[in-house]
Amino acid sequence: MKTIRIFIASSEELYDDRNVISLFIEQLNEIYESKGLQFKVVRWENLNPAYKGLRKQSEYNDKVRNSQLFIALFYHKVGMFTLEEISVAQESLKETGSPAICFYIKSLRVGEKEKEEMRLLKDRILNEMKHFIEKPYSHPDSLKLNIVLQLQRLENGNVIQAKAEEDKIMVDNICIGSLNNISFANRNKVFRQISDAIEYLQNELIMLRNDEKDLEEDVQNLKSCGIQTEKLQRKQHRLDEVRKRISDLMLRLKKQKYELNMQSKSLLNTAIQINQFSIDNQSQRLRTAIDLFEKGETEAADALLDFDEIADEAHKHISDIHLGAKLMEESINALKVNIYQLLLKAKKFEK
């Protein structure tokens, strides 16, 4: 049984969010334990049953070092113990390559402002630690999706695979959330247009189904009288029209659901690709493209990631590598000359 230990660091104010993660991990265990994969969550309030406000920080730091995924949650506060745990995780990552580190910041409510300590922390994460920060989350589904993508990245997608089905986020055929609650989807113009069209068609179907039911009852009552009247003919004609409209609407709905499924898959696959590259790559181009994608502006993000421009940059970097290799070769040869000269010098002293 392979075990992935997940350490959650955050202040007391995000107790409910830590609960969301813990319950979600339990759900993942129900899915994957039979496949030889389990997850264990470490939370500071669970380490010492006699907790009374005094933390055994060294014990927590050991738990950080022994984890495979380190998750730091922030909102208003940045606790001193959380900062220490981040430093321990960063040190362990440099020394051993583990744990993978993720930072999630909860969205501020209307009227709330970012505190200076949070601004300084984000600056430290981006510029000093050279680490990527996920966009602020406002819904638990966003947090759950981010965690799934990190776990998928951690175990190379061998077992865990997130998929999109219409507007649902699926993990091993279990729905874990809705793309309607994820910023890159609910802000995407095409996704919203298709979703609105589906909602409209479904409401139309409900009304037509009700009309169909009423007309069926009217036709049945008139037929029970045994008399073919003009009223019966009108009702039957109206019923046929409603059924035809229902059939047409169902075809349109099927088409819209197919288009939504394709759009959802495209958006989620893009999010997965971003997750695979964003942590280790900090180019300004990529940061801007991610910002645009999260805002739902996929066309602008795609335009920014211009193939020709990126290809030109790649060729330049290849040239730099070749130049560096040439300079290294020249330096090595020069160093060999220096060594030879030193050897000659040493022989002179021997005499």
Quick summary:
The chain has 351 residues and is α/β, with parallel strands linked by helices. 65% of the residues lie in helices and 11% in strands.
Structural account:
- By secondary structure, this protein is an alpha/beta fold.
- It has twelve helices and seven strands.
- The protein has three domains: about 160 residues, Toll/interleukin-1 receptor homology (TIR) domain (Rossmann fold, 3-Layer(aba) Sandwich); about 120 residues; about 45 residues.
- The chain has a four-stranded parallel β-sheet, sandwiched between helices. It has a three-stranded antiparallel β-sheet with strand order 5-6-7.
- Helix 1 packs across helix 6, helix 8 runs antiparallel to helix 9 and helix 10 packs antiparallel against helix 11.
- The longest helix has about 50 residues.
